[in-house]
Design a protein that fits this description.
By secondary structure, the protein is mainly α. Among the domains are: 3-151, no CATH class; 264-329. The chain is 77% helix and 1% strand. It is built from nine helices and two strands, in the order ααααααααββα. A hairpin with a 5-residue loop joins strand 1 and strand 2. Helix 4 packs antiparallel against helix 5 (92-108). The protein is rod-shaped and about 220 Å long.
Length: 329
């Protein structure tokens, strides 16, 4: 084995190249519907496969060692761009990585050896490119089917919404007729206007009543002021009445005592017993009885006198009646 082959196999670029191949195997685009992003990733895979085929089929003894030194520098730059894409998902990093792969192609294309090996590398690279594109197309088709399904659902929802809108529009038209059309009966708008007029009328009456009751005017005092004046007079009268009542209470007590003395007290049957009135009545009754007794005695005495007198000796005496004084209660 020549030293060129040994240096090729032990060169540091081999580790970087293997790392690139491993990392690129897991690369994918976030949105497979973006064709430019799919193309960038597919082209990256295609070039990597083609370069890997060239590296494996090359004759190291025909390639200067400085080529592999430059190759290593471009590999490091490519890895950095791939790692950046993995971190922030910006497809521009894949575009820059493809630019570094272009440099790698310029390093190896002059040293292609056999047509069969070159064809094999091209075939493998095209196969890798097709794999990425087909995978993206499958993802695109799946997403498209999902979108079509969502469009169908949205169409159904739109039909329902249109139906609801038509019903709402019909209801709005009905409301518009009931609110503003006076064809069959007074509309709500007309009734509101009539109610507004009625409210204004009632408000005017209330305002007029407020003037009469609370505010008053130049011609008439407010009822409130009259009530307040009447209240003041009533309070003053109440004070006077209280004073008069206090003054009359002792007199009323005396009158009450006099009433009891004159008419007596009431029994359980609310009849007056005792008192000066009853006493006077008793005295009057006694006088009437005494009068009757005296008349009887007088008549008997008169008869006795007449029986003792000779006949025709003197005229008869007129009968004397005792009349007691009248007592008015």
């Amino acid at each position: 084995m020549s030293r060129w082959v040994e240096q090729f196999q032990a060169h540091a670029f081999q580790n970087f190249w293997e790392n690139i191949l491993n990392i690129s195997a897991d690369l994918y685009v976030d949105d497979s519907t973006v064709a430019t992003s799919v193309e960038e990733l597919a082209r990256l895979r295609k070039v990597l496969t083609f370069l890997d085929g060239l590296i494996k089929s090359c004759d190291p003894e025909l390639i200067p060692m400085s080529t592999w030194d430059n190759f290593q520098g471009q590999c490091v730059a490519t890895i950095n761009q791939i790692n950046n894409y993995q971190n922030n998902r910006n497809i521009a990093h894949i575009q820059t990585a493809n630019e570094h792969l272009d440099n790698l192609l310029t390093y190896l294309r002059p040293y292609q050896v056999t047509i069969n090996d070159s064809d094999r590398a091209i075939h493998n690279s095209f196969k890798e490119y097709s794999l990425v594109v087909n995978k993206s197309l499958h993802s695109f088709q799946k997403k498209a089917n999902t979108i079509i399904s969502e469009i169908g659902e949205n169409k159904t929802k739109s039909s329902d919404i249109i139906f609801d809108l038509e019903m709402t529009n019909s209801n709005i038209n009905d409301l518009s007729l009931s609110y503003f059309d006076d064809a069959d009966e007074a509309s709500l708008s007309t009734r509101i206007k009539e109610l507004e007029i009625e409210i204004k009328r009632i408000f005017k009456e209330i305002n007029d009543y407020k003037i009469v009751v609370l505010d008053g005017n130049d011609e008439t005092k407010a009822i409130k002021n009259k009530i307040e004046n009447a209240l003041i007079i009533s309070e003053e009268s109440s004070s006077s009445i209280d004073k008069m009542l206090n003054d009359a209470t002792p007199k009323l007590t005396e009158i009450s005592k006099y009433y009891v003395d004159v008419f007596g007290n009431k029994n359980l049957e609310s009849e007056h017993i005792g008192g000066l009135k009853n006493e006077v009545l008793e005295r009057s009754k006694q006088l009437d009885d005494f009068k009757k007794q005296q008349e009887i005695k007088y008549n008997e005495l008169n008869k006795e006198i007449e029986s003792l007198l000779p006949p025709n000796s003197s005229p008869k005496c007129d009968t004397f009646y005792f009349k007691p004084p009248s007592i008015v209660l």
